[in-house]
Amino acid sequence: MLEAEGLVRRIGGRRVVDEVSLAVSRSEVLCLLGPSGCGKSTTLRMIAGVERPDGGRIRLDGEEVSGPDGFVPPERRSVGLMFQDFALFPHLDIARNVAFGLRDLPRADRERRALDLLGRVGLADHVGRYPHELSGGEQQRVALARALAPGPRLMLMDEPFSGLDDRLRDGVRDATISLLAESGTSALLVTHDPGEAMRVADRIALLRAGRIVQLGSPRELYERPSDRRVAEFFSDVNVFTGTVAGSEVETALGRFTAPGLADGTAAEVVVRPHHLRVTAGGDPNPGAGGAAVQLERIRFIGRESLLDLRTGGGLPVRAVLPGALSFEPGARLWISVSRDHAFVFDAVPRD
């Protein structure tokens, strides 16, 4: 229902959005994910119509709303907007806030729609209250109800939960996604938080320097990252380097196949800390690969233990294991990894 093709936005001579193309299907939640300055919010603002692209096309339900042939202003795009700043009207109670965008309807219909939506976001008993009388989470739910009141074909949300504390955020976020699903509303959500993106999105578009570097399901981006920087955006990683020879790369963690990389290429083997296997003593399975390490520090953090290790060559390694462990600092251990959990990439410079 949303199609964006080759979007470009220039600011000060620099392309802050550089040939971005994406599509959102009906009832789908797509997250634009990336660090500050990657172009994700600018992309959303162009789709909303509050910024005009310097190139590309945007279609909503097949109607071109931005392109070489014309530009439809935001108020005529039938999209809902939610931002970190809830922008509620302080002089109106919450029912009138929700009904504000329904002025074309008879008064009774406006009131009925507002009360219905406030009930669906769990605020039926707060109807006569004003925004300043509500918590941050309650204000966010009012903002959601107001955005959904006109029945938009697409919801656009820019970091809508980042102003809430951790305890509120999960509940408000889950309620928001449930209501979008219940109403069959498509959504494009901007966030810098990979955990949030994985929790709410059907698909994720990861942006870097104005471009989409990978687009797919949360599982695809986590389990099949396109490069080291994609992998480390979703979690800490250990990086073992080497040079490709005979379609393999020899590293401090052992030998790994390097499909698609030419001999002589500098390569990186990327392993997430919780994918490392750690055993006491020496190699429990000679010939299977791995490395001897010394335990430098161990910390218990509830359901897991964090182990800071160092190889004989001085390379720091981190492992995350379930539960509390009896290893002591100074212990000699062995680390290894399943080849299914090791990503081999062409080496890229550190940011």
Automatic annotation (TrEMBL):
A GO cellular component annotation in the UniProt record: ATP-binding cassette (ABC) transporter complex
Keywords: ATP-binding, Cell membrane, Ion transport, Iron, Iron transport, Membrane, Nucleotide-binding, Transport
Organism domain of life: Bacteria
GO biological process terms on file: quaternary ammonium group transport
Residue ranges of every copy of the ABC transporter domain listed in the record: 2-234
Stored Pfam families: ABC_tran, TOBE_2
Record has Nucleotide-binding as a keyword: yes
Stored InterPro entries: AAA+_ATPase, ABC_SmlMolc_Importer, ABC_transporter-like_ATP-bd, ABC_transporter-like_CS, ABC_transpr_FbpC, Mo/tungstate-bd_C_term_dom, P-loop_NTPase, Transp-assoc_OB_typ2
SUPFAM superfamilies associated with the record: MOP-like, P-loop containing nucleoside triphosphate hydrolases
A GO molecular-function annotation: ATP hydrolysis activity
PANTHER family given in the database record: SPERMIDINE/PUTRESCINE IMPORT ATP-BINDING PROTEIN POTA, SPERMIDINE_PUTRESCINE IMPORT ATP-BINDING PROTEIN POTA
Protein name as it appears in the record: Iron(III) transport system ATP-binding protein
Organism per entry: Amaricoccus macauensis
